[in-house]
Amino acid sequence: MTGKFISFEGPDGAGKTSVLHAILDRLTPMLGEQLVITREPGGRDNQVAEAIRDLVLSPAYPAMDPWTEAMLYAAARRQHVVETIRPALADDKVIISDRYLDSSIAYQGGGRELGAERVADLNQYATNGLQPQATIYLDLAPEVGLARIQATRQDEINRLDVEALAFHQRVSAAYHDLIAADPDRFWVIDASQPLEQVVADAWDAMQHILTLPTEA
């Protein structure tokens, strides 16, 4: 594999979608067909993983067992890796994924209290150990993120958004544990800043990760 795999992570309400759109608007003209944009759960043109996404995020299933949820995420990720990510890496593509394995460790391992190590082991098996070379993490206090969701995303709220503040605090703590354990992989961006500055910081990180020419 000779390509580059980059993930974007962050708690709910951190503005990942807005920041990613701005970054991709700059990257797409530069990389063209070399760039692969994908997301989790689900994947680029990935019918199996997208079907699992619809199930696992639907607010229609509040009684879903936490381990069922974790295994569904791992199953979707397995299909995503096999069908999308590994073929793109083999073709020397640059893959940018909105969420990846760290999300399961944070949300199911931390938020659902299944245990970060146990969820990591499940996903290591599902992915054959495939990790991103770099992860851009948008850091935001959970209470701020939840307030943003309530103010701006009432029509897009999913099963995880409606969890109590304590759940999201555990998610944030699990993310910070991951960053502390692997600081060389993570680029941490302060997402409490104005959007323009968050985008600027994320773009600076992307330039370093991909060794792109810096702007004058």
From TrEMBL:
InterPro entries: P-loop_NTPase, Thymidylate_kin-like_dom, Thymidylate_kin_CS, Thymidylate_kinase. Its EC number is 2.7.4.9. CDD domains: TMPK (cd01672). It holds the Pfam family Thymidylate_kin. Keywords: ATP-binding, Kinase, Nucleotide biosynthesis, Nucleotide-binding, Transferase. Transmembrane segments: none annotated. GO terms for cellular component: cytosol. It comes from the Bacteria. ATP binds at residues 10-17. The keyword Magnesium does not apply. PROSITE patterns: THYMIDYLATE_KINASE (PS01331). One of its GO terms (molecular function) is ATP binding. Belongs to the thymidylate kinase family. HAMAP family: Thymidylate_kinase (MF_00165). PANTHER family: THYMIDYLATE KINASE (PTHR10344), UMP-CMP KINASE 2, MITOCHONDRIAL (PTHR10344:SF4). Phosphorylation of dTMP to form dTDP in both de novo and salvage pathways of dTTP synthesis. This is Thymidylate kinase. It comes from Weissella viridescens. The gene is tmk.
